[in-house]
Amino acid sequence: MSVHTVTCWSCGRTWEFSPPLARSELCLGCRRDAKVCLNCRFYDRHANRECAESQAELVKDKEKSNFCDWFEANAGHASSALTSATNPLDALFGSPSNSKEKSKMEEELEAFFKKK
Q1: Is there a contact between 44 and 52 (Cβ–Cβ < 8 Å)?
Q2: How far is CA 28 from CA 14, 37, 38, 66, 103, in A?
Q3: Where does residue 68 fall: left (phi above 0), alpha (psi -120 to 50 degrees), or beta otherwise?
Q4: In angstroms, rounded to a whole number, what is the distance separating the alpha carbons of residues 78 and 32?
Q5: Buried residues in 23-62 as b, exposed as e (16+ CB within 10 A)
Q6: Which of 17, 102, 105, 116 is the most buried (most CB within 10 A)?
């Protein structure tokens, strides 16, 4: 029996499982549904229906477990919504390298938006 790896789209935790991944399976880290589009290797937010598998049926809620027969675990490459949202912003504005720099940035933002 082969062992597969999946990385949770939500929390980034990676774990191994023996296929098939049950529809009721939960992430070991955040306890969210594991058999979801966002954990599938075919998930592609730029593709038609956000799925690279052309024969797959439309799944409206990509975060909920489903009955898709085409599901294949993402093999350790999370398609985190948070990562996809922050990476372009980090590339544009730069990413704080340490917590001291981050807290300074937060203080400046609070001062800027503070009511006078």
Answers
A1: yes
A2: 9, 17, 16, 18, 31
A3: beta
A4: 14
A5: eebebeeeebbbbbbbbbbbbeeeeeebbebeebeebeeb
A6: 17
Q: For every residue of the chain, which 3-state class applies, written as one string? A: CCCEEEECCCCCCEEEECCCCCCCCECCCCCCECCCHHHECCECCCCHHHECCCCCCCCCCCCCCCCCCCCCECCCCCCCHHHHHHHHHHHHHCCCCCHHHHHHHHHHHHHHHCCC
Cβ distance 74 to 108 under 8 Å? no
Between the CA atoms of 17, 23, 27 and 31, what dihedral angle is there, to the nearest 10 degrees?
-150
- Residue 67, both tokens: 């009955």
At residue 5 the predicted structure's pLDDT band, cuts being 50, 70 and 90, is very high
pTM comes to 0.64
